[in-house]
């Protein structure tokens, strides 16, 4: 193996390890806030809205995200078809409208989110309320 190839391979592995760290850390922060009440515009452990929870969790992992679900969807990450832990899942009232809700995929068919009815909670991606509103996912 050439030195250039070895360096390239190590850089790629380093990037993947770093990304896995950010995702794991963000999920851990979000889980530590289970039960925190919903607060529209909330971005702290005293109360979160959906994008506030995601922004806060990723900020604790060292990643800056925009404030709203729509801005996260339009301005960060890249679209993915197959979910991995840490991916952001976006939801909208109709398939043609802009995202109004964001959740974080945590693996095993589950996502964590700030729900207006239950605060920070974990639910299944197959949830009958959210599944029809799903419009796509992005990896940060």
TrEMBL record:
All residue ranges annotated as the NlpC/P60 domain in the record: 20-140
InterPro entries per record: NLP_P60_dom (IPR000064), Papain-like_cys_pep_sf (IPR038765), Peptidase_C40 (IPR051202)
Pfam family, one: NLPC_P60
Single GO MF annotation: cysteine-type peptidase activity
Signal peptide: none
GO BP terms in the entry: proteolysis
Domain of life: Bacteria
Keyword terms of this UniProt record: Hydrolase, Protease, Thiol protease
Family: Belongs to the peptidase C40 family.
Protein name per the record: C40 family peptidase
Organism: Neobacillus rhizophilus
